[in-house]
Design goal:
binds cytidine-5'-monophosphate; 2 domains; 12 strands; 10 helices; Alpha-Beta Plaits; Ribosomal Protein S5, domain 2; globular; four-stranded antiparallel beta sheet; alpha+beta; 36% helix
């Protein structure tokens, strides 16, 4: 059973104060883009993980896809005897929710393999137990996530948007970026605002206006990502100089997302950004695309 699952970029990531449970209340506008991982689930004598892709992905029980299989098995009362093979194309620790995507794909693949036939609501609930970004990887499209980011409402989008993503070498840890955000705020270097959905962003998405979308992009974690990885500032500026409609750190970074006017502009921008030598890999993609899908 093979499931294809997309990466995400955050169009708006507004971060409230830290909560008692250590998480932050968010307004998190997720947008699924056409960079995909694939997870294949096959019957096996025990739980096994194999990965086809870059180094740095855990293959033990800590892998979020393994935890997804174990959680679903416990929920339906079977042994988690499955071999999961992950083919990675989403950057690792890049702020594009690759690990969460693999967990969502593993849930769906094991649900099909074990003929569990859980309804969407039950799968979304299990997904939320695995991580704040996992439910969106099941849903796909474009959606507002409230709470930790797991309470989702789909957003109406006209047409599609064209993106270029630049990955640096070496990821950033999401907890470390949130901690840096808290530190900058405590030091008075960054304001704390109560998160609200941006009207400008919703209008840009509804009307399919890429220029307005570029102006509405906002990520409260960006100052923290730049504080931990100062070279990202120049990388974002390079995108603006080369004509991107908007340049933003994706989620907790360090991947930089650049919005283009069209597919042709995205292809040109991909070449120009590659030429700057600032990124290990530069890829174009479009969004929104559907969430995890059995193929
Ligand atoms: O939910 P998930 O395990 O993916 O979150 C990873 C980390 O990101 C958390 O341990 C926490 O440090 C941070 N986080 C947060 N507030 C959120 C979501 C994530 O502080 N709403």
């Amino acid at each position: 059973m093979t499931v294809r699952v997309p990466a995400k970029v955050n169009l708006q990531l507004s971060v409230g104060p830290v909560r008692d449970d250590g998480y932050h209340d968010l307004v998190n506008v997720f947008h699924a883009v056409s960079l995909f991982d694939e997870v294949t689930a096959e019957p096996a004598g025990d739980l096994r993980i194999s990965v086809d892709g870059p180094d740095g992905v855990p293959t033990g029980p800590d892998n979020l896809a393994a935890r997804a299989a174990t959680l679903l098995a416990r929920h339906i009362g079977v042994e988690p005897n499955v071999a999961l093979h992950i083919r990675k194309d989403i950057p690792v620790a890049g702020g594009m929710a690759g690990g969460s995507a693999d967990a969502a794909a593993a849930l769906l693949a094991c649900d099909a393999l074990w003929d569990a036939r859980l309804d969407r609501g039950a799968l979304l609930e299990l997904a939320a137990q695995l991580g704040s970004d996992v439910p969106f990887a099941l849903l796909g499209g474009t959606a507002v996530g409230l709470g930790r980011g797991e309470r989702l409402t789909a957003v109406e989008v006209t047409g599609e948007f064209h993106w270029v993503f630049g990955y640096a070498d070496g990821g950033l840890s999401t907890p470390a970026v949130y901690a840096e955000c808290d530190r900058l705020r405590a030091a008075g270097e960054e304001p704390i605002a109560w998160p609200l959905v941006s009207d400008d962003l919703m209008t840009a998405l509804k009307t399919g206006d890429a220029g307005a979308l570029g102006r509405a992009l906002r990520n409260d974690l960006q100052p923290a990502a730049l504080s931990l990885r100062p070279s990202l500032g120049d990388a974002l500026a390079a995108g603006c100089d080369l004509g991107a409609l908007g340049s933003i750190v994706s989620g907790s970074g360090p991947t930089c997302a650049f919005l283009a006017e069209s597919a042709g502009h995205a292809a040109d921008l991909t070449g120009a950004l590659t030429g700057t030598g600032r990124f290990a890999v530069v890829r174009s993609a479009h969004g929104p695309v559907p969430g995890a899908t059995v193929i």
